[in-house]
Design goal:
about 260 residues, five-stranded antiparallel beta sheet, 8 helices, about 35% helix
Length: about 260
């Protein structure tokens, strides 16, 4: 009888272990599967990691409201730089390109974002008292990246840029600029090209590590401005290097 009782206990323990949910580094696989359908342990772990990264990024962002309609992303970035290193600044715009009177700034660290909320709230920016708070919209940056809602942006995501590109309807207004000095920033490029017309967008192409590729794109308000730049700015000097200027063939910029 004692032997039979021991076997029964071992069998009960084995069944209990099989029924227990599997956990990996604190992630309950069974609970995750029940909540979101079937998935591997690696899937659940990846989702957990991504969620954590999103939370950290969100904590580095602040929302700025009551902006003057004339405030650009550069104005916003310069003002918020008093609290720390601003990686990106966006002035949110409507589909007609007009400012919505609010924006998002992303700092290099959470501490700097916190400092911005504490020190720059209720400060004056171009004649209006702005308010600064934590960015509560978890997907703000992702939405702007795919063009939802629009925005005037600046930062180092894909390039060193200034202004907002026209996109559809901008044919013939864009030029490609090559042989740029690695020290040239988008503002230098924009200032140099202003001699030919009204520049609405300037970008210095960068690699993944942020270094310049030595080339850039400039978009003018009119096709005439772009033509003038090609005619007069080719072979001019910019920060010690002779640049070349041609139509932007990849963005529909030729005049064929």
């Amino acid at each position: 009888m004692a032997e039979e009782g021991k076997k029964a206990e071992e069998k009960a323990a084995s069944n209990a272990a099989a029924a227990s949910p599997v956990k990996k580094e604190g992630v309950d696989i069974a609970a995750a599967a029940a909540a979101g359908g079937a998935g591997t342990e690696d899937d659940v772990e990846a989702k957990s990691t991504t969620s954590g990264e999103d939370a950290v990024t969100q904590n580095k962002r602040v929302y700025v409201g009551n902006l003057s309609w004339s405030v650009t992303w550069r104005d916003l970035k310069d003002h918020l730089s008093a609290a720390g290193e601003v990686l990106r600044a966006d002035v949110l715009t409507g589909y007609d390109g007009r400012s919505k009177g609010c924006g998002i700034c992303e700092f290099a660290t959470i501490e700097e974002a916190t400092a911005a909320v504490e020190t720059l709230n209720n400060t004056d920016l171009m004649g209006r008292q702005i308010f600064v708070r934590e960015d509560r919209e978890a997907k703000t940056a992702a939405k702007k990246e795919v063009g939802v809602g629009g925005g005037e942006r600046g930062g180092d995501r894909g390039g060193d840029r200034g202004g907002e590109r026209g996109g559809v309807g901008g044919e013939g207004k864009s030029i490609y600029v090559g042989n740029l000095s690695y020290e040239v920033a988008w503002q230098d490029l924009k200032d140099h090209m202003r001699e030919s017309g009204d520049v609405v967008y300037a970008e210095v192409m960068t690699m993944h590590d942020g270094r310049s590729k030595g080339c850039g794109i400039v978009e003018f308000a009119t096709a005439e401005g772009a033509k003038e730049a090609i005619a007069t700015m080719n072979d001019t000097d910019l920060k010690g290097r002779t640049i070349f200027v041609r139509e932007d063939r990849e963005q529909g910029g030729s005049w064929r």
